[in-house]
């Protein structure tokens, strides 16, 4: 192809930019590591080359193909890459641990390289195969200058697309999964499909640019799509800023330009290669040492300064905080329980953590589960939410069995939990934490986001307004745009509360919601729980502080060694010396 050398180099840097941004969607936004970016890039290139080939002899072998027009080859490249990405991701996405994904993608990278080298009649083997230049109707690219303009447009469009997806409700869901997948499921969201779709999307973009790049080069060979290249793309994301599309763009431009700049300074191509590695390695070391979150971190603010990080603890929650009174009432006995759990048990090896546990929870009631450390209280919540499967028994919510349905389905059905230790999504804003928890968001479904973005945007406005309302309700509306990990612990707890309410669930299981906060924040939380019960929520709370229990609980269930030993009012329990001894360990 004729044209300037600079344009050719710049075009190849743009390939790296597009690949880095596609990987950033996966690695930075969704937190899913892939070592197979180069393989998907190659899958697209080879698919397009094979589908557009008509019978080219190359390296002693004849590569035969159906001779489709370029656009047909391009579309088949995208479709094949998307499917390949989905299939590779699906088994790993079912596991929570990311190292399965790293192993699977590495295996796919090797499988691809081996196949490209081995199936000579299809791929041309190690010598590669030629492919026809890009031509769509009258449109063709004949010079490197034209190619630069074309690929610059493609790079800008793909960066805008990646940014759109990253900032969409689907992107927010992916970020939640990256932060704490277990919590996302406990909020009623499925995680396997979004993770697999993120993978398929990144693979599709890589495959698409692979097809375009191969048609520009008019040649494909296995050496272009090796593991070294996959590592280079991953380094662009890590150095630029995982989660920040502009960051990976800048890093790809810098890293991709090292060798051409050295050559421009007078080095030969052979001399520039080792120096490129040295500078690349140095950039990595310096980046990891001085900018561990990347050159342009995800939550960097361009205008308006930093997030209000160290905002003082707020005590202006607009719920009753004057003279304490129990807002909820013990419910008449003839009403049906919202939650009916019967005969739950859990054994861990030789330890019977829970034995024959039964409980009924009524609408508007606050029940406290108390007992000494290790009594089995948190295990009860795990069993109710199916975080762990009960060995025996039944669990019903509003008369329907929810036993064994899985955490996400149970949460969707109407029972959610507040985790001991908060588990807020630390790298996200308070507003995003709450917005993510809301049900029925069309923008969380990738297909609906892409096919009807306007409907997704309209719903997103509503979701954000409601999230803001909830943050105001718990008294931290002014911190909506703060990054949660920068907030004091008490305020993080309030974010988690607002997030829990956002699910709209009618049953709330609260595991030590006031532990670790100062007395004033604890008073806020007490008032908040009372308000929720008064609004008709059914609440079961695990709490160590007898003060908080006496303020809140309509009924107390006392557990010891996995069994219920008392069920009554707080006065019933505290008047029994044997229970007081057990509780205080005397
Ligand atoms: N996954 C597990 N594997 C093995 N043992 C477990 C597991 N989870 C809990 N246990 C054990 O089961 C018992 C009950 O634990 P659990 O966390 O439910 O108690 P708890 O009443 O909530 O205690 P604490 O008040 O200290 O939080 C403990 O002895 C604990 O060590």
TrEMBL record:
GO terms for molecular function: ATP binding; ATP hydrolysis activity; branched-chain amino acid transmembrane transporter activity. Keywords: ATP-binding, Cell membrane, Membrane, Nucleotide-binding, Transmembrane, Transmembrane helix, Transport. This is ATP-binding cassette domain-containing protein. Residues 339-586 form the ABC transporter domain. It comes from Rhizobium lusitanum. Pfam families: ABC_tran (PF00005), BPD_transp_2 (PF02653). InterPro entries: AAA+_ATPase (IPR003593), ABC_AA/LPS_Transport (IPR051120), ABC_transp_permease (IPR001851), ABC_transporter-like_ATP-bd (IPR003439), LivM-like (IPR043428), P-loop_NTPase (IPR027417). PROSITE patterns: ABC_TRANSPORTER_2 (PS50893). The lineage of its organism: Bacteria, Pseudomonadati, Pseudomonadota, Alphaproteobacteria, Hyphomicrobiales. The chain crosses the membrane at residues 6-27, 39-58, 70-93, 100-122, 147-166, 197-217, 229-258, 270-290. One of its GO terms (cellular component) is plasma membrane. It is a multi-pass membrane protein. SUPFAM superfamilies: P-loop containing nucleoside triphosphate hydrolases (SSF52540). It comes from the Bacteria. It is found in: Cell membrane.
């Amino acid at each position: 192809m004729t044209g300037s050398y600079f344009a050719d180099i710049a075009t190849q840097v743009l390939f790296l930019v597009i690949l880095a941004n596609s990987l950033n969607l996966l690695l930075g936004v969704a937190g899913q590591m892939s070592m197979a970016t180069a393989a998907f890039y190659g899958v697209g290139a080879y698919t397009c080359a094979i589908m557009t080939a008509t019978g080219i002899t190359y390296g002693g072998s004849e590569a035969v193909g159906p001779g489709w027009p370029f656009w047909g080859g391009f579309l088949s490249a995208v479709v094949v890459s998307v499917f390949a990405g989905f299939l590779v991701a699906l088994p790993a996405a079912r596991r929570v641990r990311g190292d399965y994904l790293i192993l699977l993608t590495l295996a796919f990278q090797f499988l691809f390289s081996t196949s490209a080298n081995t199936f000579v009649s299809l791929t041309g083997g190690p010598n590669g195969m030629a492919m026809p230049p890009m031509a769509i109707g009258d449109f063709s690219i004949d010079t490197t200058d034209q190619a630069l303009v074309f690929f610059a447009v493609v790079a800008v469009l793909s960066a805008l697309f990646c940014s759109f997806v990253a900032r969409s409700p689907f992107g927010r869901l992916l970020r939640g999964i990256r932060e704490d997948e277990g919590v996302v499921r406990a909020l009623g969201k499925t995680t396997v499909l979004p993770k697999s779709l993120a993978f398929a999307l990144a693979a599709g973009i890589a495959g698409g640019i692979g097809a375009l790049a191969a048609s520009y080069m008019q040649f494909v060979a296995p050496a272009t799509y090796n593991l070294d290249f996959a590592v280079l793309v991953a380094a662009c994301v890590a150095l630029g800023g995982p989660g920040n599309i502009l960051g990976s763009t800048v890093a790809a431009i810098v890293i991709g330009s090292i060798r051409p700049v050295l050559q421009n300074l007078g080095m030969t191509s052979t001399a520039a290669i080792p120096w490129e590695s040295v500078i690349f390695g140095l950039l990595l070391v310096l980046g990891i040492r001085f900018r561990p979150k990347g050159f342009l971190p995800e939550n960097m603010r361009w205008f308006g300064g930093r997030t209000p990080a160290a905002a003082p603890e707020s005590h202006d929650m607009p719920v009753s905080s004057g003279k304490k009174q129990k807002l909820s009432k013990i419910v008449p006995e003839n009403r049906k329980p919202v939650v009916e759990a019967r005969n739950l048990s859990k054994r861990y090896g030789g330890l019977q953590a829970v034995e024959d546990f039964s409980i009924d929870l009524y609408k508007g009631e606050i029940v406290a589960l108390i007992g000494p450390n290790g009594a089995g209280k948190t295990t009860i919540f795990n069993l109710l939410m199916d975080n762990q499967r009960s060995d025996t028994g039944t669990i019903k919510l509003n008369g329907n069995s929810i036993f064994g349905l899985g955490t996400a389905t149970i949460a969707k059905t109407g029972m959610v939990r507040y985790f001991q230790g908060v588990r807020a999504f630390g790298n996200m804003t308070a507003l995003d934490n709450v917005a993510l928890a809301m049900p029925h968001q069309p923008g969380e479904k990738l297909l609906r986001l892409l096919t009807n973005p306007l409907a997704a945007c309209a719903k997103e406005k509503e979701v954000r307004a409601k999230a803001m309302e909830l943050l105001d309700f718990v008294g931290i509306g002014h911190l909506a745009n703060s990054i949660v990990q920068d907030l004091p612990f008490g305020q993080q707890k309030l974010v988690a509360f607002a997030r829990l309410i956002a699910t709209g669930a009618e049953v709330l299981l609260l595991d030590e919601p006031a532990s670790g906060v100062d007395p004033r924040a604890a008073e806020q939380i007490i008032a908040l729980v009372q308000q929720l019960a008064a609004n008709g929520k059914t609440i079961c709370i695990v709490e160590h502080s007898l003060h908080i229990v006496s303020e809140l609980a309509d009924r107390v269930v006392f557990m010891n060694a996995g069994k219920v030993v008392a069920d009554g009012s707080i006065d019933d329990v505290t008047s029994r010396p044997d229970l007081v001894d057990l509780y205080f360990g005397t």
